[in-house]
Write a structure and sequence with these properties.
- The protein has four helices and no strands.
- The protein is an all-alpha fold and 103 residues long.
- The chain has a domain of 58 residues.
- The radius of gyration is 20 Å and the shape is elongated.
- The termini are far apart.
């Protein structure tokens, strides 16, 4: 339990966000609060030597507190739209396709 770290792969569209906290709560329901704290943030904080609580108190880092702060943030996953000219232009820019002659 001292090395396991949970992550949600946010903000990738194939992650469990924005329902990750609720899904995790169900998955970890049989574990004690100390183990849940280790898995959700304690172990990662220790492994990466990162303490967010130095600058932000724990009560402001809960799911509820962070969601309240970001009430105006769109958490809807926007995937599956049809490709359009913006996508083609971006692809050409990324690959340099516009600069290469077509064969």
């Amino acid at each position: 339990m001292d090395n396991v770290c949970w992550e949600s792969d946010y903000p990738h569209s194939d992650s469990s966000w924005p329902s990750a906290p609720e899904r995790l709560e169900t998955l970890l329901a049989d574990l004690g609060p100390e183990v849940v704290a280790k898995l959700t943030h304690g172990n990662a904080m220790r492994h990466y030597q990162f303490d967010p609580f130095r600058t932000r108190p724990p009560k402001r880092c809960t799911v509820a507190a962070l969601r309240a702060e970001a009430a105006d943030v769109d958490t809807v996953t926007h995937v599956g739209r049809r490709a359009d000219d913006r996508d083609l232009a971006t692809w050409k820019q990324m690959t340099g396709a516009a600069a290469r002659p077509r064969s």
